[in-house]
Design brief:
Pol/histidinol_Pase-like, PHP_dom, alpha/beta, histidinol-phosphatase activity, Histidinol-phosphatase, TIM Barrel, Histidinol_P_phosphatase_HisJ, 10 helices
């Protein structure tokens, strides 16, 4: 069992220590974890540092590997797309011999979807399409990543009573994204951090199913944990949804190559 998305104090929005994340993983039956500290060059929030120092991350991982020999601890980055800094971002990510590169869109236009200002003057449809258009732009701008992170991120942040981003509401834009991922041979992350807000993962099950129908084969799972108690959160429900969507196996990345595990085996490992 594995968790491929988590942040420690080396990301500006977490206070967690990697040792704490490792202990939580062991308690939940997770044998492989991957840290994915933020690299969001040019993020509009100037008060929070969304740019980790990868060598500090690597040193942290090496120390944790010595202490937690029973765990496989992998080195990843979560790279955020912004059009003004994509060239810098690509060069930054290429410097390091990583296990995993997760590519995410947090910012569309001038604001992060997390910020209330993002929604000012926009209808719900306009807000969601602006986000989806940014995801399309991100895929046209770079192909040097492994998986698309938390597709539907806006749903976790949006100030609406039923914020889920569903395929039927935005089919043209969502399918344009999925077509690009399949054509590029890139994976899709099943991110479970949205369960408390939407009752499901990012992307929603119908989008995950459509990705599989279109020929998508690479899917991973990540809690997006920023605290130890969130490691592996809602994994059983997400694995069931993945199986229903047509997946028999998921993967993590090691040395930028996918390593697949059957969902049945993953379910059996969870505590």
């Amino acid at each position: 069992m594995f968790d491929c998305h988590m942040h420690t104090h080396l990301s500006g929005d977490s206070q967690a220590r990697l040792d704490e994340m490792c202990q939580a993983a062991l308690q939940k039956g997770i044998g492989t974890l991957c840290t994915t500290e933020h690299v969001d060059i040019g993020h509009p929030d100037k008060e929070t540092l969304f740019l980790c120092e990868p060598y500090r991350e690597r040193e942290q991982i090496e120390r944790a590997r010595e202490r937690f020999a029973q765990l496989k601890i992998l080195w990843g980055l979560e790279v955020g797309y912004m059009p003004a800094t994509i060239v810098q971002t690509r060069l930054y990510a290429q410097r390091y011999e990583l296990d995993y590169l997760l590519y995410s869109v947090h910012v569309a236009g001038e604001w992060d979807c997390y910020d209330k200002e993002y929604y000012e003057g926009l209808t719900r449809r306009q807000a969601y399409l602006r986000y989806l258009d940014a995801v399309i732009d991100s895929l046209d701008a770079w192909d040097g990543f492994d998986c698309m992170g938390h597709l539907g991120y806006i749903a976790k942040c949006a100030p609406y009573e039923d914020p889920a981003l569903r395929l039927g509401d935005y089919r043209e834009a969502v399918e344009a994204i999925l077509q690009r991922l399949v054509r590029m041979g890139k994976g899709l992350e099943i991110n479970t951090s949205s369960f408390p807000k939407t009752g499901g993962p990012m992307p929603e099950a119908d989008i995950l199913r459509r990705y599989r129908e279109m020929g998508g084969e690479i899917a991973t799972i990540g809690s997006d944990a920023h605290a130890p108690e969130a490691v592996g959160q809602h994994f059983k429900a997400a694995l069931e949804l993945a199986r229903t969507a047509g997946f028999e196996r998921l993967c993590y990345f090691e040395g930028r190559r996918p390593v697949f595990e059957p969902i049945d085996k993953m379910m059996a490992a969870l505590r």
